UniProtKB/TrEMBL annotation, chain A:
Belongs to the SecD/SecF family. SecF subfamily. GO terms for biological process: intracellular protein transmembrane transport; protein targeting; protein transport by the Sec complex. It is a multi-pass membrane protein. It is found in: Cell membrane. The lineage of its organism: Bacteria, Pseudomonadati, Pseudomonadota, Gammaproteobacteria, Alteromonadales. Part of the Sec protein translocase complex. Interacts with the SecYEG preprotein conducting channel. SecDF uses the proton motive force (PMF) to complete protein translocation after the ATP-dependent function of SecA. Keywords: Cell membrane, Membrane, Protein transport, Translocation, Transmembrane, Transmembrane helix, Transport. One of its GO terms (cellular component) is plasma membrane. Forms a complex with SecD. Part of the essential Sec protein translocation apparatus which comprises SecA, SecYEG and auxiliary proteins SecDF-YajC and YidC. This is Protein-export membrane protein SecF. One of its GO terms (molecular function) is protein-transporting ATPase activity. InterPro entries: SecD/SecF_arch_bac (IPR022813), SecD/SecF_bac (IPR022645), SecD/SecF_CS (IPR022646), SecD_SecF_C (IPR048634), SecD_SecF_C_bact (IPR055344), SecF_bac (IPR005665). The chain crosses the membrane at residues 136-153, 160-182, 188-209, 236-255, 261-284. Residues 109-290 form the Protein export membrane protein SecD/SecF C-terminal domain. The gene is secF.
TrEMBL record, chain B:
This is Protein translocase subunit SecD. Residues 2-103 form the SecD export protein N-terminal TM domain. GO terms for cellular component: plasma membrane. One of its GO terms (molecular function) is protein-transporting ATPase activity. The gene is secD.
Length: 313, 614
């Protein structure tokens, strides 16, 4: 069985201008949305208290809101979580350590009318911890991108490195943008997912670049554009199949993994789809636009198999 | 001949997989509900105790699977959670406070497997329920305390050297000493500098010197405060009776405490959060209390209130601090009033004996010092702690006190018990504050495991079906590699002592399942290409594997870079995810490149083939 049969190269690169414009618009749109709507930061980042409780039957949300009001937690957000008998209560951070005992107070308030309430999860995060996490998360992302840029520049060519990192930044920004537009909650697991997107999308990009390098060395004729087209055509089957298998399991995670892991699965699903597109269009278009040529990728005089390292320049 | 592995390579592949499978196997056995008994300060765990415990449980009608002694602990396995709870309660009642009785889960794997170190994966709190605290140590308080100590030391040593000073006091982050004349100042500077190499001492004019702790010393103090607090936390957690608690340092000033199985957060917090210490000081008899109440507090003294609101004028100089207390327990005195019995270490004993020697007949006060969050924060957003000092008891020194003595005048037995617990566990060197708290109920933990397993199984089935449909027999090979890969991840996770499986970790495994086939897809697509280019099947296999190798390596190393950075920078869920991702990448590279090649070589290698099922 084969998904696609190609006897000729597909002219991917002839579409690169529309693709670049599309990507550019999407990136700008994402940045605008991030600036205007911002992200719907989860508890990990904002600090505060989240309490998940389980009722025996369907929960009466207005009753719970009343109870919270009476217990002086008027600012609480009360919503169902997963099923109608599971309720999630969010409270904004408050001054002092009182926040740490807030969970106990809320449980007392909820049980005040004699209802059987099962405490499933309480999380309290201080505002400073959240602030540090935001910094750390951003830092992790930046360090990852720099390390990857260095690795790719060393193993391949600096133009590829720039292309790869641009593609990664593209994926991260678009995924963040989608989270911002849809106002999905951005918590620590989503951050982990985003870093996994970097890993995944890079995986894809490297495979394509590897083939481009190989073809530059192997094909006698043809300009950079044809070589890239031909490489993309050759790797297209693999790109699609790998994305497909990854999406398959992510769907399993999305539907079967439970509410806690939902954000994670959503971020990865978006990221994988965007990453697949970007490894085809963004990375190679940018390398091409920066003038990658046959000479840049010719092997050094003596080449040992497996240990080939291109000179830096 | 093409596509034949030498025998040693086959053996190596089989060996690696066998070892991983062996260490993965304890996970299949699950865990027994158990009760763990460890000895307190005045008790030992021995065979006698073992008999006593078995007999008692027999009488109570609780079915016991087995009783085991390991590393000074007694482990009693029972059949279910209900038995576990009743066994714990009845044993705690039997053994009293000399032993710590805790709920535990013991691996149910056969002993030979446990003997070679085969244990199941450690589960994170999100999967088994429990409390997680992140605590911040107030480093400023540690420094302030050191400075207070400095004031005392200066007074004593200057007096001994007969260098007469006007005043010694704390000014901002420095200690200032003023002298009568320039000459004494210079002598004092010389004397103090030689005796205190880690102080920065300077002349700030007006016959005054200012001393500051050197930066190095400040760092040492902070480091010490953190380490000491971790030790104390560990003691306190042991008092709570929690099996397998995690107490770890995080960053420069934080401590992570994880208590699996604990649901009663209020009590846990009370014990962990309390910062209390005792000081023993002499009552200042040379001055009038009433003058002090009116605002004329003499420089060497301090006005404190006792529990009944009565003012007490105490000398600032401390006879002894709570640091020297090695044991404390509560009991009743001859009149049935609660009291706390205190044992001191030898240094504390001799200090106490020295300072009480000359003061027989004089009143001594016991001061209870507690740091409580004030509810206010400073400009950095850190919580400001208020120091609460309270005289809990004033007693006349009847005789020279030694290594052990008692404190009376405590209101209730419960308070005496709480105080003795705090003193026994040690006083925190610097106050701490809970900055993060997470509690996961046990039912939610189990639900998380079930959902995660479902996701893994569904993902696996989808991929297995797809791969066979798409690559036929070679798809079967990839599937074998995928299943082996899962077993290897579980095996490696079980082998690494620090690795903990969390919910995001399970998500990481699911993701690896999806991405692990990538290497095989790359290889198989190559083989197909080679066949299309007109190579013979054997050559196609050979070239397919060879040319895909560097691509796979490059692609995976970059993902590995991301995983390692995640691990280094991340905390909590991010870390759990990065561990499984990194392990998954490594094992999938092994199974996809070496593992599938071994199978392919064994099945197709060395034969004349006309067609490949790919």
């Amino acid at each position: 069985m084969r998904l696609f049969k190609f006897d000729q190269e597909i002219p991917f690169m002839s579409m690169r201008m529309p693709a670049m414009i599309l990507s550019g618009l999407l990136v700008i749109g994402s940045i605008v949305s991030l600036a205007v709507n911002q992200l719907n930061w989860g508890l990990d980042f904002t600090g505060g208290t989240v309490i998940e409780v389980g009722y025996e039957g369907p929960a009466d949300l207005s009753q719970i809101r009343n109870q919270m009001q009476q217990a002086d937690f008027g600012d609480a957000v009360v919503q169902t979580f997963g099923s109608s008998s599971d309720v999630l209560i969010r409270l904004a951070p408050r001054e002092g350590v009182k926040a740490a005992t807030m969970g106990d107070q809320v449980m007392v308030a909820l049980r005040s009318d004699g209802q059987q309430v099962d405490m499933r999860r309480i999380e309290f995060v201080g505002p400073q911890v959240g602030e540090e996490l935001t910094e750390q998360g951003g830092l992790a992302m930046l360090v990852a991108l720099i390390c990857i840029l260095m690795y790719v520049a060393m193993r391949f060519e600096w133009r590829f490195g720039v292309g790869a990192v641009a593609a990664l930044a593209h994926d991260v920004i678009l995924t963040l943008g989608l989270f911002s537009i849809l106002q999905l909650e951005f918590d620590l697991t989503v951050l982990a997912a985003l870093l996994a997107v970097i890993g995944y999308s890079l995986n894809d990009t490297i495979v394509v670049m590897d083939r481009i390098r190989e073809n530059f060395r192997k094909l006698r004729k043809g300009g950079p554009e044809e070589v890239i087209n031909w490489s993309l055509t050759q790797t297209f089957n693999r790109t699609v199949i790998t994305s497909l298998t990854t999406i398959l399991v992510l769907l399993a995670l999305f539907f079967k993994g439970g509410a806690l892991i939902h954000g994670f699965a959503t971020a990865l699903l978006m990221g994988v789809i965007i990453g697949t597109y970007s490894s085809i269009y963004v990375a190679s278009s940018i390398s091409l636009a920066m003038g990658i040529s046959k000479e840049d990728l010719m092997p050094p005089e003596v080449e040992k198999e497996g240990a080939d390292q291109d000179p830096l320049l | 001949m093409l596509n034949k592995y030498p025998l040693w390579k086959y053996i190596m592949v089989i060996l690696v997989i066998a070892v991983c499978a062996l260490y993965a196997s304890p996970n299949l056995y699950g865990e027994d509900h158990a009760v763990q008994i460890s000895a307190g300060r005045n008790a030992v765990v021995d065979l006698g105790l073992m008999d006593k415990v078995s007999e008692h449980l027999d009488e109570a009608g609780i079915a016991v699977k087995n009783v085991q002694m390991e590393d000074d602990q007694l482990l009693i396995r029972v059949t279910d959670g209900d038995d576990q709870l009743s066994a714990r309660d009845s044993l705690a009642a039997l053994l009293g406070s000399d032993y710590v009785v805790a709920l535990n889960l013991a691996p149910a794997a056969p002993t030979w497997l446990q003997d070679i170190g085969g244990t199941p994966m450690k589960l994170g709190l999100d999967l088994r329920g429990g409390v997680h605290f992140l605590m911040e140590v107030d480093m400023n308080a540690a420094i302030t305390r050191a400075q207070e100590q400095m004031v005392d030391d200066f007074r004593n040593s200057l007096r001994e050297e007969r260098l007469r000073y006007r005043r010694v006091e704390q000014q901002g982050d420095k200690v200032e000493v003023q002298f009568r004349d320039q000459e004494t100042l210079e002598q004092a500077i010389r004397f103090l500098s030689t005796n205190n190499p880690d102080l920065e001492i300077e002349d700030i004019g007006e016959q005054t010197l200012a001393a500051n702790l050197s930066e190095q010393r400040q760092r040492e103090i902070q480091e010490y405060a953190l380490k000491q607090n971790i030790t104390i936390m560990r003691n306190r957690v042991n008092q709570l009776g929690v099996a397998e608690p995690v107490i770890q340092r995080q960053g420069a000033d934080r401590i992570v405490v994880q208590l699996p199985g604990i649901q009663d957060t209020a009590r846990a917090k009370e014990i962990l959060n309390a910062t209390a210490t005792l000081q023993f000081r002499l009552v200042d008899l040379d001055h009038d209390v009433r003058d002090a109440v009116d605002g004329r507090v003499p420089p060497g003294s301090q006005l404190l209130m006792d529990r009944n609101g009565q003012p007490q004028l105490l000398q600032k100089q401390v006879m002894l601090t709570g640091d020297h207390i090695i044991d404390a327990n509560s009991s009743f005195d001859e009149y049935g009033r609660p009291q706390v019995n205190i044992d001191l270490d030898s240094e504390g004993g001799s200090k106490m004996s020295r300072s009480t020697k000359d003061n027989i007949g004089k009143p001594m006060a016991t001061v209870f010092i507690e740091y409580k969050p004030s509810g206010k924060t400073d400009e950095n957003g850190k919580i400001i702690f208020d120091k609460h000092e309270e005289v809990i008891n004033v007693a006349t020194i009847q005789a020279r006190l030694g290594n052990s003595f008692r404190i009376t005048g405590i209101d209730s037995p419960a308070e005496a018990q709480n105080l003795s617990l705090l003193l026994r566990a040690g006083a925190l060197v610097a106050p701490i504050q809970i900055v993060e708290e997470r509690t996961v109920g046990p039912s939610l933990g189990q639900e998380n495991i079930d959902l995660g397993m479902q996701a893994i199984v569904w993902g696996l089935i989808l991929i297995l079906v797809f791969m066979v449909a798409y690559y036929k027999k070679f798809g079967l090979v990839a599937n074998a590699a995928l299943v082996i890969n899962l077993v290897m991840i579980v095996g490696v996770m079980s082998m690494i002592p620090g690795a903990t499986l969390t919910l995001p970790g399970m998500a990481g495994i699911v993701l690896t399942v999806g991405m692990a086939v990538d290497a095989n897809v790359l290889i198989f697509e190559r083989i197909r290409e080679e066949i299309r280019d007109g190579r013979s099947p054997q050559q196609a296999i050979h070239h397919g594997y060879d040319s895909a190798l560097s691509t796979i390596a490059d692609a995976n190393i970059t993902t590995l870079i991301a995983a390692v950075i995640l691990f280094a920078v991340g905390t909590g869920p991010v870390k759990g995810f990065s561990i499984t991702l990194a392990i998954g990448i490594l094992t999938s590279m092994f199974t996809a490149i070496v593992g599938t090649r071994a199978i392919v070589n064994a099945v197709w290698g060395g034969k004349r083939l006309n067609k490949l099922s790919i």
